[in-house]
Amino acid sequence: MIRACTLLALALLPFSAPGARAGGLDVPIAGGKFESVLPPSPEVKVAVIPAFRMDTALVSNADFAAFVRKHAEWRRDSVAGLFADKGYLRHWASPTDPGKEVAAQPVTQVSWFAASAYCEARGARLPRWYEWELAAAASATAPDARDDPEWRQQILEWYSRSARGALPAAGASPANYFGVRDLHGVVWEWVEDAGSMLVSGDSREQGDPNRNRFCGSGAIDVEQKENYAMLMRIAMLSSMKASYSSNSMGFRCANDAGAQR
Amino acid sequence: MTKNLLAMVAATTWLLTGCGASDKAATAAPATTVTGGSLKGDFGPPQGEPVKAVLTSPPEVPPATGRHAPAKVIVELEVIEVDKPIADGVTYTFWTFGGTVPGSFIRVRQGDTVEFHLKNHPDSKMPHNIDLHGVTGPGGGAASSFTAPGHQSQFTFKALNQGLYVYHCATAPVGMHVANGMYGLILVEPPEGLPPVDKEFYVMQGDFYTVGKYREKGHQAFDMQKAIDENATYVLFNGAESALTGPQALKATTGQHIRMFVGNGGPNLVSSFHLIGEIFDKVQYEGGTHFQENVQTTLIPAGGAATVEFHTEVPGNYVLVDHSIFRAFNKGAVAILEVSGEARADIYSGKQGDEVYLSDKLSNLAPVVTAAKASASGTLTKEQQVKAGEVLFKGTCSACHQDTGAGIPNVFPPLASSDYLLADRKRAIGIVLNGLSGAVTVNGASYNSVMPPMSQLNDDEVANILTYALNSWGNSGGAVTADEVKQVRGSTKRAEGAAH
Q: What ipTM is given for this predicted complex?
């Protein structure tokens, strides 16, 4: 029995140990001026994004299992209800083992709190929305392909399929211009500022006086209305409280360019 | 409370229609009836135990509420994202209220307090919400019902206005959620209920936008640009090309009073709703209180509805179409109502005669004349037959079998690459001469329609049409001779005087 466990741990080793993870925060992105679908404010249309680093791939179930084994407070059988809903890691074979079939797949069914704690344990943080959006604007050949209707339609096709069916392995999709993988066509992704970029539950409430209830970057006026893929990302993130989990919501980590790796 | 209100309505009616007006006179002058709208729609707090609403999938409609006092009604509606056929061999990922397009039909009574539970299935990829046009309040419930996958929301509203209302999803991007099938109908019955009818149906039109062309096989993704351009790939009743045709056709008998609750989910196109061969005795346009009588075609806006009523007299197939007619024949906006019963020749005779009338179209018929002369002189070639057959086919057969020979799925069988046609030449001759009714299987699909005998065609013409069919659309060739036709004509029976 002990032996079996050891074997299993060995099998998971290549993915384990946050921080030592192959490909962690390994993509430097220069940042700069960026026109987001969510402008910083009605007056300021262009966001300025400092340089940052980002994981190449999504965090896998095996990655997350290694973290959970070290930090027992994030096991599904001991996590505080405030930080994770009933769906948290419920697809795993046991509280510490995702099971062979899903080990290499991106972790899903994780709350924002759990995702943040994972990144923190790696000395990192979740990407901010602008960082994620900037990285995700790239096609394989261009840093900003958002005006390319063909590329837009291509990434939109993921949204035209239901969430049933197995996920591909984390990092399995081709790298984009920056060298980041899995940004489209795999799962939704948590971002650090998910809680402050709320848009209205009724997306037609443009220019509603209630906009002030959303602080910070939470501008209701969404730009680039033809950018359906991003609108859906924002709608999804807005519908999720920080304790919620979903079988199509995963994450990756990022950090400031200057931070120690 | 209710009693008082009814008494008040009655008094108002009396005042408006004058002394001695009977109930009958009141219904005959609907324009003078005013229900008072939302201001008169609150009949006080709910009474009795809460009631769980009966939800039905299209084309079924829940039974009348039968209530005479305001109730608390609990509606539990589940959002499910499902892959389903949109046309033969074509699938699409629909986002649905209750697993169907349109979504489950909801039926309540004016004054009811509706406790609405929206559940978003854990396998959903998207957050969803619901805006019911029958709700009085900001967003129609949209913001209150915004729900992440694997969660459920609750909100409560009082149904103040009677009528037939569309509901739909209003999550960003709204157009895409609606285009994927997220709409349905909620009926708010008037306090006295609707007059009883023999049958009620639930039909809803919607337009769909796929990356592939109309009927391009395989799984098709949503095409955002086509949706923005309002260039629909499909226009459908009840979410699929075969939803209400073939075995799924709506069924009724003669002598029935039919009520259809017809909605239009859009997202873009307004419907010119028409029932071929019937006249709507009554249309409550916009699903409202007032009605128009004797309506041929009624406009149903996207995000709107109409209640249509008619009485069936003559048996046969009646075709529901969007009379913006290319949508019917080229985008799928066709549904069938099968009415069975005794024939009524006193109301509708069927065809009573057919004679050649050439007028100035003579030049178009030149190949027919050429073939006839050649046949008489014994020099007829297959090419001449095909040319003559093509002209005759277009004038006689293509209305049903289509110029492409592809027919119409579930309604008219194909001739192109048709195993049924190619298997038995004598049988084919017999069908043209004598007609065909009852079930047949063509290329694996079952058809159950009626083809009348083509008794207006002579032996030459039948031979030419069949020769054309055997040599077109990839069919394998061969020629049918007038002698063969003559033989079959002599050895089979046909109805006296039957004609197309």
A: 0.77
